[in-house]
Amino acid sequence: MDIRNICLLGHGGSGKTSLVESMLYLTGAIDRLGKTADGNTVCDYDPEEIKRQISISLAMTPVIYNGVKINVMDAPGNFDFVGEMQSGVRAAEVGVLVCASKDGLSVGAERSWKYLKSQNKPCIVYISKEDEENANFSETLNALREKLGSSIAPVAAPIQDANKHTIGILDVIKRKAYKMGSGKGSKREEIPVPADMADALDEYYNELVEAIADTTEEYGEKFLMEEPFTTEEIIDGLKIGVRTGIVSPAVCGSALTGLGTEMLMTTIVDLVPAPGEMPAEAATDESGENAAEVKRDPNGPTAAIVFKTISDQYGKYSLVKVVSGKITGDMSLYNPATGKTEKLGRLYTIKGKKNEEVKEIACGDIGAIAKMDRLKTGETLCDPKNVVKLAPVQFAEPCYSRAIAPKTRGQDEKVGTGLIRLNEEDPTFNVVNNAETHQVVVSGAGDIQIDVLVSKLKSRFGVEAELDTPRVAYREKIRKQVRKQGRHKKQTGGSGQFGDVHIVFEPQDEQEDMIFAEEVFGGSVPKNFFPAVEKGLREACAHGVLAGYPVVFLKATLVDGSYHPVDSSEIAFKTAAQLAYKAALPEASPVLLEPIGELKVTIPDSYMGDILGDLNKRRGRVMGMNPTGDGDQVVEAEVPMAEMMTYAIDLRSMTQSRGSFTFHFVRYEDCPAAAQEKAIAEAKALAEE
Questions:
Q1: Distance between CA atoms of 173 and 156, rounded to whole angstroms?
Q2: I need a surface site. Which of 246, 566, 573, 593 has the fewest CB within 10 A?
Q3: Are 317 and 309 in contact (CB under 8 A)?
Q4: 632, exposed or middle or buried, with CB in 10 Å at 0-12, 13-18, 19+?
Q5: Distance (Å, rounded) from C-alpha 322 to C-alpha 344?
Q6: Calpha distance 205→185 (Å, rounded)
Q7: Can you say whether the dihedral through the CA atoms of 86, 89, 95, 96 is positive or negative?
Q8: Pick the residue with more confidence: 403 or 564?
Q9: Residue range 641-688, pLDDT digits in tens
């Protein structure tokens, strides 16, 4: 069967999920239009999606139009779920950028466009909601062209009446006009081109012809000779233009009335390249070091990429895109990531929340394999005789962290198991059990993603969790030399305990771990007790005297002491060493050290002032600025980790979601007095709790 794979992208609320409904309704796959507000759409079926009225996961369904199977993937527009969009783009040949007609160029559309370009994926633009008040096709088109480039060429345009209501649509390629038929399930009907639209139609047509002139030398010559193009040549030129990324055709319509939906499907079938027409996919051999390529050959050795995992109460489904060969249920395929051969089981076509069993998944098609417990998102399944690794989905690093704990004591294991299961289907967040701060920290793209995880823990795994600010792992060190005695003497019935040490504590900068030395003369402390003294000190270093944080960059030298031939023991000397430590450190000018991270924040030029001002407030030091070449700047700075807890959300509001950042720990530095007081107060409050 002829196949097209597309992924719908764009800002939240631009009408992507409704557009899928319109496509299914017009092709007879469903008998009534579902609405996001009613929670009855094919693609938003998760209870969380219905409750919040937004898409959270990548959903897919096939649409059969004129004998062609269009695999439509509906990606969430919310920035917290950008990983779902990236998974969809990995499996699609083309991205369909959905922009609401009255919104102009939204941030979501701009970011999706940039991502498509970074992945070398072609794009079609669909300007939605033409039926709404204040819809303005030409303004939105101009805004898109101004920001995204002149490659956007309209192949359709709306026809409006005197009251600015959209009543029909122009087909620029065929130079025809259509309106929606009246009555349920009716198709579009051809109407004469309105006289007042004739000039606009000519203008759009000439723009298409100009765009095609750049696609091949032959069409370029024809354009220069001013020879007319046939409809077939225009379609062929646009198809080449889409495949090479030179042209991005723009269509428009309304999912609610169905106007323009058929035009979009025709555009997809005519202009989107079939999987087999795309160039070979870059890959590597099993080691990952040597480049290879996978030709899109239906008769070639099997190679498929797992681009998403769905894990629900019925089991686990691995969604695969077959790049070469085909997959059948009785196959055994090799997974280079684990080095194991996997016996496949049942295969399915995914239709929203419904699954339909199939015998095979053909080359270029998308399907699901059930119950593949060892298989993870991003891994390759291939012919054991022809091992290749396809490029996985590159997800952005998680940048927003919260500490998570069960509301009821003793349910930590339940929370842990739930998060592991949720991580299978959403690899864009990670979980770290921080032994030092005694917190489980979950990190993701933003607050909504983490909030959804907490809701899913309750609904799917029956465990209520609460979120808190992650604690900062401070350190302590001393700044001057102090000598102290530690003497432990205990006399009970029988043998007593006796240990006596004199230790010099001083700062050092060779290593973070404590350096232990001994300079004992005349055997005042026998050699066999040295390890006990060192062990006592190392245990003591785990808790400093300011706020109980580990002590670093310390040197302890055992210089003197005394012992008892009968009562001295290892435990006595270990205790004596700890007493010396407790006496010395408060007098050794202790100071708190705070973790400093390296921040790289990518922002459009226009936000530079706001970002620099904000970094100053966070006690940040700007180290440099580098332009990226597409109007963005990368600001590099060093900022204390304690000041970065809400940065993901603050950056979003400062840049209207246009900024992104990475942040990594680099070193510890002395903590300023005000910040030190605050940290000590927090540590004391926690200890009392």
A1: 8
A2: 566
A3: yes
A4: middle
A5: 14
A6: 31
A7: negative
A8: 403
A9: 999 999 999 999 999 989 999 999 999 999 998 889 988 898 888 888
Strands 248-252 and 152-154: parallel
Cβ–Cβ under 8 Å, residues 252 and 200: no
pLDDT in tens, 164-197: 888 889 999 999 888 876 655 567 888 898 888 8
Residue given tokens 């991005």 in the structure block: 248
Count other Cβ atoms within 10 Å, centred on residue 174. Answer: 14
What does the block give as tokens for 232? 């077939």
Mean pLDDT of the 305-311 span:
92
CA distances 287 to 139, 304, 389, 414, 661, Å, are: 51, 18, 9, 37, 31
Q: Is residue 124 within 8 Å of residue 96, measured between CB atoms?
A: yes
3-state secondary structure 24-63: HHHCCCCCCCCCCCCCCCCCCCCHHHHHHCCCCCCEEEEE
E-assigned strand segments in 363-438? 366-370, 380-382, 389-390, 400-406, 430-434
Distance CA 184, CA 162 (A): 26
Half-sphere exposure for 414 (CA within 13 Å, toward CB): 18
pLDDT of residue 494: 65
User: Cβ(675)–Cβ(546) under 8 Å?
Assistant: no
- Comparing 3-12, 178-187, 509-518, 555-564, the range with the smallest average pLDDT is 178-187
Return d(Cα 649, Cα 669) in angstroms, integer. 26
Residue carrying structure tokens 């000598």: 483
Q: Name the one residue in this structure whose structure tokens are 């973070």.
A: 512
Residue 184 confidence (pLDDT): 57
Q: What are the residues whose beta carbons fall under 8 Å from the beta carbon of 525, sequence distance 6 or more?
A: 500, 501, 518, 533, 558, 560, 561, 562, 563, 573
Checking DSSP bridges between strand 475-478 and strand 590-604, what pairing results, if any?
antiparallel
Residue 445 identity: A
363, 320 Cβ separation under 8 angstroms: no
Q: For position 185, what pLDDT does the model report?
A: 57
Q: 211-218 long-range contacts, Cβ below 8 Å, gap at least 24?
A: 211/151, 211/153, 211/237, 211/238, 211/241, 211/246, 211/247, 212/237, 212/238, 212/241, 212/247, 214/241, 214/246, 214/247, 215/240, 215/241, 215/244, 215/246, 215/247, 216/240
Higher per-residue confidence, 161 vs 615: 615
Cα–Cα distance, 483 to 583 (Å, whole number): 9
pLDDT score of 475: 94
Instruction: Please choose, from the candidates 226, 12, 204, the residue with its C-alpha nearest in 3D space to the C-alpha of residue 99.
Output: 12
Pairwise CA distance, residues 462 & 213, whole Å: 61
The pair of three-digit structure tokens given for residue 467, joined into one six-digit string: 């979120």
pLDDT at 296 over 60: yes
Q: Across the chain, what does the average pLDDT equal?
A: 90
Least Cα distance to 55 among 25, 26, 15 occurs for 15
Question: CB under 8 Å to 421, separation ≥6 — which residues?
Answer: 311, 460, 461
> For residue 474, what pLDDT band results from cuts at 50, 70 and 90?
very high
Q: 565 CB contacts (<8 Å, ≥6 apart)? A: none
Spatial separation of the C-alpha atoms in residues 103 and 100, rounded to whole Å: 5
Q: How many other C-beta atoms lie within 10 A of the C-beta of residue 684?
A: 13
User: Which amino acid is residue 177, in one-letter code?
Assistant: A
Q: Are 525 and 576 in contact (CB under 8 A)?
A: no
Percent of the chain at pLDDT above 90?
A: 60
CA torsion sign for 347, 350, 351, 353 is positive
Mean pLDDT across 393-403: 91
Percent of the chain with pLDDT over 70: 98
Tokens of 255: 């999912």
Give φ, ψ of 357 to 5 degrees: -70, 140
